[in-house]
Amino acid sequence: xxxxxxxxxESVGRLADVWVYLSxxxxxxxxxxxxxxxxxxxxYQRSGLHxxxxxxxxxxxxxxxLLWATSTPYATYFEGAQFVHxxxxxxxxxxxxxxxxxxxxxxxxxxxxxxxLVVGTLSATVTAIGVAWALGASKVTIASLAxxxxxxxxxxxxxxxxxxxxxxxxxxxxxxxxxxxxxARYVLDALRIQDPSVRGFxxxxxxxxxxxxxxxxxxxxxxxFAGLAMGLCAxxxxxxxxxxxxxxxxxx
Amino acid sequence: MIPALATLLVFQLIGEALVRALTVPxxxxxxxxxxxxxxxxxxxxxxxxxxxxxxxxxQHLSLLFVPAGVGVMLHLQRLGDEALAIGVALVVSTxxxxxxxxLTMVWLMRRVAPPDPFPIDGDAP
Lengths: 252, 125
Description:
The structure holds 2 protein chains of 2 kinds. Chain A is mostly helical.
């Protein structure tokens, strides 16, 4: 501290105290997550819900930049952000509500949905493993990639079981969700698929919660199908993926 | 709002307890969702009590993935070293997953499902 300028030194010291408090308390991580997401969401709305202005992608870039610039460890940030992360559990349970409201359609379409779910989930897993292996990724990376189309908490559990890194899987899950939500409109338009129930279901199968969030915003009934796909995908994957991915990983 | 939130947490709790007691490989919240759906089918009157809170939570589903996404900070080294393999695998498998799920569903709908008496209208995602 500068002895000649006691006042300035004192205020700098006080500012440092404030930072010491803020950087150690979960308050900052939580507040900044909500503020940055709110800002990202406003940008998303301004862009007319443009698929490429995904609010998760924007938030992750800004928050990652902030952590890097202030050299804050991720663990410190997560002390606050965990309160948001925790809500993934109750949100998954809440999917029962849109499902219940779409019961009549679900009963009529159960067989096409079951087929789409099995084919979509397995083809995404097998191509992820195959492409990563062909391009020389390490075994740990491949095991972390395998469950990336499943919603975060479930995918992390599967990764742990087949020898991947759960935290790396969480990142890849988020990347997949962003990619799926951003590309769905173009892919499905190119395939000339217009039915909102099919579009929603495909988004939920390939891009879990982030795809579901996008489907809900664009059309609530598509959202119900996306939510159903995400829930069924979590159920099916939790049982089938450790077997399928475990079998493929043994051959690599 | 509080009773609704408590209901969601109770079903999650039952789900988590069940999967641990029965050592099944399914995640607790997914079992909680299935049980809540069953409860709604048995007692449709409970829907109005939880509907607003459940839909609010689902409208902001994207937000809940942000903390996990920021975890990219922990893996910059590995992601940089294997950027090509990871990037190509992510893009290819996501596109294949989307297209194969959509095409399978359309193909099966033409074969087995009767036409929708009340087709969904509005925008498609």
